[in-house]
Amino acid sequence: MPRVNYEAPTSVDDAVKILAGASGLAKVMSGGTDLLVQLRSGRVKPDLIVDTKRIPGLIGIREEGDFFVVGAATPGVMLSGNEKLDHAWPGIVEGADLIGSTQIQGRASLAGNLCNASPAADSVPAVIAARAAVVVAGPNGTREVPAESIPTGPGRTSLAKGEFIVAFKIPKPKPHQCDAYLRFIPRTEMDIAVVGCGTNVTLDASGTCIDARVVLGAVAPTIVVVEDAAKALIGHKLDDATLAALDAAAQKACKPISDKRGTIEYRTKVAGVLARRTAAIAFERAAAR
Amino acid sequence: MSYLDKEALKVVGTRPIRPDGIDKVIGRASFGADYTMPGMLWGKVKRSPHAHARILKIDVSKALRVPGVRAIVTAADFPNIANEEAFVGEGPMNFRDLSRNCMARDKALYDGHAVAAVAATSNAAAEEAAELIEVEYEVLPHVIDVEAAMAPGAPILHDDMLTQGVEPKPTKPSNVAKKITFTKGDIAKGFAEAEVVIERKYTTKPVHQAYIEPHACVVAVANDGQTTIWSSSQGQFMVRAYCAKLLGVDIANIRAMPAEIGGGFGGKTLVYLEPVAMALSKKSGRPVKLVMNREEVFRGTGPTSGGTIEVKLGAKRSGRIVAAELVLKYQAGAFAGSPVGPGCMCAFAMYDLDNVHITGYDVVSNRPKVAAYRAPGAPISSFGVESCLDELARELGIDPLALREMNAARDGTKTPYGPTLTNVGYLQTVEAARNHPNAKIPLGPNQGRGIASGFWFNIGGESSAAVHVNEDGTVAVVEGNPDIGGSRASMAMMAAEVLGIPYEKVRPVVGDTASIGFTFLTGGSRVTFATGMAVTQAAEKVVEQLKSRAAAIWDISPEAVEWRDGKAFPAGANAGSFEPLSLADIAIKSGRTGGPITAEVSINAQGAGPGFATHICDVEVDRETGHVKILRYTAVQDVGRAIHPSYVEGQIQGGVTQGVGWALNEEYIYDKDGRLENAGFLDYRIPVASDMPMIDAVMVEVPNPRHPFGARGVGEVPIVPPMAAVANAIADAVGARMRDLPMSPPKLRAELDELDPPRMAAE
Ligand SMILES: Cc1cc2nc3c(=O)[nH]c(=O)nc-3n(C[C@H](O)[C@H](O)[C@H](O)COP(=O)(O)OP(=O)(O)OC[C@H]3O[C@@H](n4cnc5c(N)ncnc54)[C@H](O)[C@@H]3O)c2cc1C
């Protein structure tokens, strides 16, 4: 009969030791809203589950200098409940808040969303657009890497054996900087993004864009940072020509598949639409601060 | 007796809480999967991964070696049932086909078709053993869609299927089980008179009922063959009849117990698991539990048909329709028996037409056998007809409600399928829709309004009910219909009204097959009508007994006693002067006045009044994504008399919501090998709560004189108009005429791009 062992260590070191020493498939668990569903459906068959939620610091949001440090297992409801974070990065909070339902929000975390490595993960585009880093603990100590370096393909990450994410370090916004996230789903909730787009812009006092990041979800095997879309924005105000160039750049960056959730053609068109719509929201928010 | 005077009613028409409400809210209600028995085994069904394959060999030797395995069954463990029409469930069914649908014999006919089943001491052992059952298949070419299945050279599912209803009788098998036609008047003459002719083709996809509770049962077969079945279904008598036939035992050997049912919508009017669990129990000597997971529900149980609807309408410029022609091709799934018949009959039933010709085809293909789904067949044909009517209205420049009014069926209209309508409220629904504020709210950019009407027969049939007066003056009502829409509340209300006692004093229960007389299943919107009639009559018999007991106590003649407000009174001064006796007073003394007071009534209820509805749907279209938002929805329906108005509104709102899912997103996605790719609620998209506005359910009450309270069925007609109402609203909003369901965002965006090609974005 299949058996799964369960450990809930209370320190990062213990967790690393358990993970590094495990034989068979060991899975880190934060909220479990992906992992337990996959376990029940038979899609993953772990020998060991290591629950991170009892490790001090893994749940909670604190400020360290120019950064928000978000514990890896912090559930969505704590992100949307944090006024400072919500004010600083409404786009990140919007993305996280879209995950599942009220029940799911009580568990679902940024780390789980990132490490489940679905190209359609809703919290990830805005997190990457904000140039967030993740703190990775492992047998060789801790390292800090950009969030976008973690997922390498559907269901795959760059984390080595024994490694797991401890926290997200999200820089605080500069003056006139803000973000937005939108996803398209056929319904209004409880669905997987057909396309997602997180856009983060910094404006000068005149409203001209001086820095930007546009990140698309669900249009390629991993989340895509669209350099050309950022270029289309930087140096411009948000006029029709800029929007058209942004739309074209976003469409060009898409390498989607046709599947039960959408055709290549449709996903590509909608990527352009969402790039424009998120840019409009982000510009308006940035200009207002 | 008749209780049609609404003003005189005390209980009927109020909104008390349902007797099963608390249990359902706190999670105490026992559904199919909640039953267990000492010594019970867990079963698991092994399913075909192929859409069409000959079963060459089934090797169970490895599976039998899994510790804990007690029995494995295949088709060889079931009697080979002969070809015989069954009149047990809601739609057409054949005992042989049902047997082969529960357990494939010779061939697997769809992805998910059951080919074997195992029972073991744990769920995990059963699952492991099911994996280890080795089935050798010869994979055959398959066909999924209805027109492909009709095309020459299509893979044939059944070598003995010779199309019925065509002359000369075919000699070669095909996938067309049956052709049917309905004719009224002279169609050629009608078209010759027409000033405008409009001809269109529409398609719909199969959609699942998507009940929340997956199929589940526990079956215990004793050594002497006495069998008890606990299961969630729309009819315990149906379960009993099918299991007796499929296992070759006497009906008397089976007692079927109804569980609470977590939704059915027609999908639980037949059996999948019960005969299999029964065979496993028989073989193992232990009770066996079988529970489907959601994937099995999608792969293994029946949705309703998808179909093609070809409509041709001929009209005068005035809007009067002079000819209506319809060709329907309904996909039945792996075995014959799509609801194409009712699809044909309902399509034009809202209209008074002189010249009609309707042809229907029942077509098999490699998908799960379809099952009933709310107004089976009608929503499909109505999507085509009601869309085409809208196209006609636009062409003629006539308001869609006015066009319907001009052609409306009324009392005395002869339907294309035969009967003449009486006491119908179709025009009243059109009128109420026109006067509803929703019809007048101004629309913004990209917003549109759609109108569509619908019809459903509603049925009566065999029903039994018992009313028992308890010793303390409370009352038990026992009836034979599983309650899927709040019917227990309605039964208790009708009994309370007749008896003149408060609703809270009446406790309704659904009896098992040994506790109440035969009752046809819960379907066809029949329960409040037919079983309600039985309850009313049983309560009236109880009143007669109460009167004679009072007469005995007073020593006067029973005719001299009157029953009012739950009490016996002397009928007049001549009858004598006595203090009135309440129901409780009489009940307490019943032991001394002749014994228990109780009545059971079994009837075959006739005169179910047809149901008509007219819906208004307002949408807003996001032109860039193709997303459709339902802004407002008003559903007007002739409900006869709303016994419990909240549950009538619930039926209307539920039907509309399912219809909106059908319209916008629901579809089965098959890969090239005929395997279902979206067997779950993530990618089979029924509406979520936030997709829907509050639906305004407007009840028009044209009482049905054949029912003591004027009730007519209400549960089915609300799912008939929504698909066309949504399509017509989209056409109104953005000019895109969506003729193929679902009107999903990618399809709508593509259609909009075709109407107005996007300019190339500047580089
Ligand atoms: C009903 C429902 C609705 C959903 N809706 C959405 C939605 O709308 N959008 C969306 O994006 N997702 C959705 N999800 C998926 C899921 O909720 C999210 O991906 C969520 O963010 C996962 O977080 P978690 O903490 O529950 O992850 P877990 O299930 O705990 O983990 C997910 C994966 O990440 C790994 N992991 C977890 N923590 C760490 C760590 N600290 N370090 C390294 N690896 C780790 C796990 O090993 C596992 O592989 C939904 C899920 C459900 C059940």
What does this protein structure show overall?
The complex is a heterodimer of chains A (289) and B (763). Chain A is an alpha+beta fold and 289 residues long. Chain A has helices at 12-21, 35-41, 76-80, 83-88, 90-97, 102-105, 110-115, 124-129, 227-233, 240-252, 264-287, and strands at 5-7, 26-29, 48-51, 61-64, 67-71, 133-138, 141-146, 151-153, 156-157, 164-171, 177-184, 195-203, 209-217, 224-225. In chain A, strand 6 (133-138) and strand 7 (141-146) form a beta hairpin. In chain A, helix 9 packs antiparallel against helix 10 and helix 10 packs across helix 11 (264-287). Chain B has 763 residues and is an alpha+beta fold. Among the domains of chain B are: 6-28 and 460-605, Aldehyde Oxidoreductase, domain 4 (2-Layer Sandwich), CATH 3.30.365; 394-458 and 621-669 and 702-756, 2-Layer Sandwich (Aldehyde Oxidoreductase, domain 4), CATH 3.30.365. In chain B, the strands form seven sheets. Chain B has a seven-stranded mixed β-sheet, sandwiched between helices. The longest helix of chain B has 28 residues, at 527-554. The A-B interface holds A 1-2, 184, 186-192, 194, 241, 244-245, 247-248, 251, 260-263, 265-266, 269-270, 272-273 and B 122, 124-125, 128, 624-627, 664-665, 669, 677-678, 682-683, 685, 687-688, 690-691, 744-746, 749-750, 753, 758, 761-763. The complex binds flavin-adenine dinucleotide.
